[in-house]
Amino acid sequence: MKKIIALVLSAVMALSLVACGGETVESHELKMGHVLGAAHGTKCFASVTAVVEGDKVVAAKIDEYQFMSGDELISVPNAENYAANLAEGVKLVSKRVDTEVYSAKMAAAGSTVAIDKNYDAIEAHVAGKTIAELEAEIAGEMAADAVAGATLVDCAGYIGVVVEAAKAAQAQEAVVYEGSLDALTLKYGLGAAHGTKCFAEVAVLTDGTNVVLAFIDEYQFMSGDELKSVPNAENYAANLAEGVKLVSKRVDTEVYSAKMAAAGSTVAIDKNYDAIQAHVAGKAIADLETEIAGEMAADAVAGATLVDCAGYIGVIVDVAKA
């Protein structure tokens, strides 16, 4: 079943236009997907979100995570608690968050465009193109200047992961957005939604007033041979304490959810995230702020059992307002 996002303003405009014999308001069936991939080399991994309408990419958001050293690094949320999981002096960074430091290293190697601006250029390039068109682009060797405003040699690698995210989106449930796509922005951010052992990654499609779609994942350092870990994990051993891996809770949902079940939980972690995403879709940002201003009831989010539902919604609100 598709979730209908009936924006009050759009509904009023639609009625007015129909009554006057004018055109009806635009209606779009949108889906959001997310994947992790190896877009560039072996020292990092990419996190990519895509919004699609049918076979067309409406918007995409790219970031990468890398282990680096340097006091000037901002690092990811809750970083002060990860020292025991990392080699001495090493930090886990988001290249978007630490764009100044990472871009300075790129500039020293001759680059003239900051890493976040490169990502932005690739996102602008893929928007409005079909999956098939993007696949055709990267099937051969892409020209160095194929993506306007980008200087990264691995543009094809990033576009390839966007294609994967777009295909993942096609498998998700659609929402119906009534209004112009020009009003929408795909935003992305990190936060501390639950405790101090992990950090949350959130993508939000918003028109500035409402959350249209949202995506949640969390990253945590864990130990266990059964863990899948993140892309390029085989190359991170020197950056981590012995036996430790960096995991996405969505990728390693079976292992993490088994630990939750041992503690009494009846809903897998990825299904909890999905329930929160469904809960916020179509709601006004202001209404979500009101929800979490007080103490949320344990059953306030249908299908979710996480005690920190308000924390996850809070990060979604923060990202939507950013």
Structural descriptors:
single chain; about 325 residues; alpha+beta; six-stranded mixed sheet; 9 helices
How is the secondary structure organized here?
Layout (H helix, E strand, L loop, with lengths): L2 E3 L2 H12 L7 E11 L6 E10 L2 E14 L20 E5 L4 H10 L6 H12 L4 H9 L15 H16 L4 E4 L6 E7 L6 E9 L4 E13 L20 E5 L4 H10 L6 H12 L4 H9 L15 H13 L1
Parallel strand pairs: 1-6
Antiparallel strand pairs: 2-3, 2-6, 3-4, 4-5, 7-8, 8-9, 9-10
Helix pairs in contact: 4-5, 8-9
Gyration radius over CA: 20 Å
* Domain module tally: 1
Shape: globular
Secondary structure tally, helices: 9
- What is the chain-wise order of helices and strands? EHEEEEHHHHEEEEEHHHH
Structural class: alpha+beta
Q: Give average pLDDT, whole number.
A: 92
Beta-strand proportion: 25-35%
Query: What is the terminal separation in angstroms?
Result: 31 Å
Number of strands: 10
Strand order of the largest sheet: 1-6-2-3-4-5
Low-confidence stretches: 1-20
Q: Helix amount, in percent? A: 25-40%
Main beta-sheet annotation: 6 strands, mixed
